Amino acid sequence: MDFTLPDSALAVQRGIADICARYDLDYWQRCETEKRWPEEVWAELAKGGWLGLAVPEEYGGGGQGLLELAVATETLSASGSAGGSAFTYVLTPGFGAMTLARHGSRWQREELLPKLATGELETCFALTEPDAGSNALGISTFARRDGGEYVVNGQKIWITGVQRATWMLLVTRTVPAAEARPRTNGLTVFLVNVPEAVAAGQLSFRPIPKMGANTTPSNMVFVDDLRVPAANVVGEVDQGALVLWDILNPERVLLAASALGGAEVALKVAVQYAKEREVFGRPIGANQAIAFPLAQVKAKIELARLMLYKAAWLFDNHRPCGTEANIAKLTASQAAWEAADHAFQTHGGMAYSLEYPVARLLADARIGKVAPVTEELLLNYLATQVLGLPRSF
Questions:
Q1: Which of the 8 DSSP states describes residue 266?
Q2: Ramachandran angles phi, psi of 37, nearest 5°
Q3: 273-307 in b/e burial notation, b at 16+ Cβ within 10 A?
Q4: 21-49: per-residue pLDDT in tens?
C-alpha cells in the first residue's frame, strides 16, 4: 500500500499554497465581515487553471479527479479560509464540472465544460426542500412534460451561490415520491439557466441570514411554472438518482476536505497562542489541560485525512465510496469542531474578540455537524447500511 499523494495532487497542493500565501487570516475575516466572495483568490485560481482540475483535457481542463479537488479544497481551507473554501470547489468544480463530465450530454459538455474550466461560468445545486430536509427522496418539486419542455414548480431551501450562478442543477420529481417504485426512481436533474429564469419571473430567491460562511449567500428558492427544455436533462429522465449519488458523494468528500483544512487552521491558531500567552510565569501550552486536547485534535485530523483520501481515490477509480465518503465527512467535521472549540478554550475570554479569528472558525466548524447532512443521519447510515442494524423508519 502506497500512502504518498500522486505527483498530480502534490502539484495542486503546491500551486494552491502559493496563491494562498498572499492572503492571510485578516483577508478572510474581511471577506466574512463584508459578506463578499473572495474575488481576488477566485481570479487567481481561474488564471492559474486551478478551477478546471476536474474538467477533461479535451475541454480545456486539467483532467484530474476528486482526489486533486479534495487536496485543493483542503489546502485553501488550511490557509485561513476555513469553511469558506468549500464553496469555491464544491459549487462549480464539484457540482458543475465533475457532474457534467460524468453525466452531461454532448452539447452540455461541449458548451459548458470549457467555460466552467476558466471560471467564466459558475453553477449551484438545488436539492433540499423545506418539507423534505435531509430526505432527498421525499422532495416534491415536480417537473411535468409539456411537448419539448418540462414545466417545473416547487421550492428549495439552503441553496448556496444562486446569486453568482449561471446554471443551476435542479433536482425534481418526475414521478411523485408516493408512486415511485423503488423509491429512488422518478428523480430527474435539470440544467436551469438562472439569469434567464429570473428574468422570465419563473425563478426567484431570497437570502437567508446566517451565522457563518457569509462569503456566499444561501437562499430560499421559488420555482413557478419554470419552463426547461428537455435537452437540459442531465443523465436520463426518471434516473436522476444515478446522477445524484455522483453529486452527493463528492460533496461529502469536498466538505470533509474543507473541514479538515478548517481544523488545521484552528489548531495552528490555538498552538501559536498557547506558545505566546504566558500566565503564572510560563506559556499556557506547558499545561497538559491545554496541550493534550490539542494533541488529540491532531491525531483525529490525521485519521480523518486517511479516510478522506481513500474515499476520493475510490470515486476516481469508479468504485463504491458511499461508506468511506460518509465516514470522511463525519470524522472530519468532528475534528473541525473539536479543533475550533479547543482553540476557543485556549484563547479564553479573548476568543470573543473579533481581533482574533476564533469566532469565525467556530461558526464555520459548526456547519459541518449539520450540513449538508446531519451527523445523526451519517451515523444512521453506518448503523443500518454497514452494520446491518434494524431501520427505525
A1: H
A2: -65, 140
A3: bbeeeeeeeeebbeeeebbebbeebeebbeebbeb
A4: 999 999 999 999 999 999 999 999 999 99
